[in-house]
Amino acid sequence: MDENNSKHEHSSGGKNLKVYTQKVWITLGIIALLVILIFILKAAFNVLLMVFAGSLIATYFHGVADIIETRTRWRRRWCVMLSVSLSFIVAGMLFWFLGAKISEQVGDMSKELPDLVKTAEDKLKQSSLGRKIIYYISGNNSQKLMTSFQQIFRTSFGIVGDFYITFFIGVFFTANPNLYKDGIIKLIPPAGKATAKRLMDRISYTLKGWLKGMLIAMFFISILTLTGLTIIGVPMGLALAVMAGLLNFIPNFGPLIAMIPAVLIGLTVSVNTTLIIVALYLLIQAVESNIVTPMVQNAMIKIPPAMIIISQVLFGTLTGGLGIILATPLLAVIIVTVDELYVKKLQNNQS
After folding, report:
1. What is the value of pTM for the model shown?
2. How far apart are the C-alpha atoms of 184 and 201, rounded to whole Å?
3. Half-sphere exposure of 261 (CA within 13 A, CB side)
């Protein structure tokens, strides 16, 4: 009897061990699949970001075409062609008249960068606050900062091939946007087609308003920065102004990045000049934040500033620099989508 019980316990123990082993392997398999899925989604998200960037290019061309069509009443095809042609002509003229000067100043800035950093370090060593700043950005701390900076901006956007892909996606979207819009709508069940079309129209309107506001803000920042730096007498003012305008496309972080080379160049002149440059950049950003940004938000959608920073950190962590650059329009699209698909329906049900 005892012998039978021991055999039964041994058999059940073996079965339990086998079941436990199977559960362990199943769990490991699920974890492995989740890891693989995360990597696939991350790679796919990078591709989706390039598609989104391409759609922004198409949105810009069609936004300019809307203005031309409103004023001329010409056929849409001709307005789009004129929009693309005018954009390239204006860009070519700017490059022709300003490109050589900007290229020269950027080249000088690159050559002088080590000397600028050395001069800045010598100036900072003359004060206790400066010595603390040097301590935090030197040695291991400097290496950590540089590693973090490289990690943020080491993205597909930095690869020339991906830039061309994004550009050609934008060209195809510009040439025949209805083909892709209708294709997406066809995938939606019949009951949701009207909502999908309304959502896409609203997203298009929001992005056009956002792009219009951003272009005005970038031009505004460039002109004010060039004027201020010229009055102060800072060298390489044109390159710094163009850099400030372009980097204003990235809220919060862009203006801070644009200020760094200006401060380094200012330190080669004097500490007072550096303080004036910092005050100038802060003043311009204050004017832009209190005048231009509200205009942009009224043209698209009001986004809480904290949400912009959170989205930049989130998308930057996932995809790097491209995520940071596109964080604001992506957040606008998400807010519009949630409002159209959830908030409005909830309000209708309550009423």
Report:
1. 0.70
2. 13
3. 24
Structure tokens at 4: 């039978």
Q: Which residue has the tokens 């998308």?
A: 315
Q: Is residue 140 helix, strand or coil?
A: helix
Q: Is the pLDDT of residue 68 over 60?
A: yes
Residue 308: name the closest of 259, 257, 252, 255 by CA: 252
How far are the Cα atoms of 185, 194, 199, 290 from residue 190, in angstroms, in the given order?
9, 8, 15, 44
If one counts every other C-beta atom within 10 angstroms of the C-beta of residue 296, the result is: 23
Summarised one tens digit per residue, pLDDT across range 239-286 is 888 888 888 888 777 888 888 888 877 777 777 888 888 899 888 888
Sign of CA pseudo-dihedral 246, 244, 250, 286: negative
Nearest CA-CA partner of 166 in 297, 51, 265, 11:
51
**Rounded to whole angstroms, what are the CA distances from 122 to 65, 131, 133, 225, 340?**
53, 10, 12, 26, 56
